[in-house]
Design goal:
single chain, elongated, 2 helices
């Protein structure tokens, strides 16, 4: 595979590989900083995007879902940055574990978050906020924290299955938002 490369290109390739190896092995924080500068912390998912494996957003990652997109693997959102649904629908076909402090908000025309039947959006660790997004819950919205709806703009909550307050910290849903409930809203924390 490399036999057709001139010697000069082989030497350049070896030097680049050596520098990369030294960077990765020498200082993990420097490697992370270099990677963030080169590739950024923002992940854009264009209309029609389908994430079939597990999706993990960690610490300072920002995600923009543009148009109609879906996740088919478990979505673990531990980010402290906003998740944006821009002018379309994000469907969580395998649910979401939301532990980060970042909000979910919409932009553009008709941003919608869909929790399909049989799937769960579960919140943990600190208060959560959803703004300017229609939430269509046909699955389970499992709240272990407080949830503010409408932060930064109107939210419509359509619940056709279950919203469940699972701990005493999940004191309720606050905000001024239209709610269309044909399902169940219950508290199971015993307090």
């Amino acid at each position: 595979c490399y036999s057709s490369l001139p010697a000069r290109d082989l030497v350049t390739l070896e030097l680049v590989c050596r520098r990369l190896r030294d960077l990765v092995c020498g200082d993990e924080n420097a490697w992370k900083a270099c990677a963030e500068v080169a590739w950024g912390r923002t992940h854009n998912f264009a209309t029609g995007s389908v994430v079939n494996g597990q999706l993990n957003l960690n610490s300072n990652a920002t995600a923009n879902f543009i148009g109609t997109t879906q996740t088919n693997g478990q979505f673990n959102n531990a980010s402290n940055q906003p998740l944006t649904i821009n002018g379309g629908t994000l469907t969580l076909n395998a649910g979401m574990n939301w532990s980060g402090s970042g909000s979910i908000f919409g932009a553009g025309l008709s941003p919608t978050l869909v929790i399909p039947a049989g799937q769960t959006l579960s919140t943990t660790v600190g208060p959560k906020s959803i703004g300017t997004v229609t939430v269509n819950n046909a699955g389970t919205l499992a709240l272990n924290t407080s949830l503010t709806l409408g932060g930064g703009g109107l939210v419509t909550l359509n619940n056709s299955n279950l919203i469940e307050f699972q701990t005493a910290g999940a004191s309720g849903i606050s905000g001024t938002t239209p709610t269309n409930n044909t399902g169940t809203i219950r508290s199971v924390h015993g307090g």
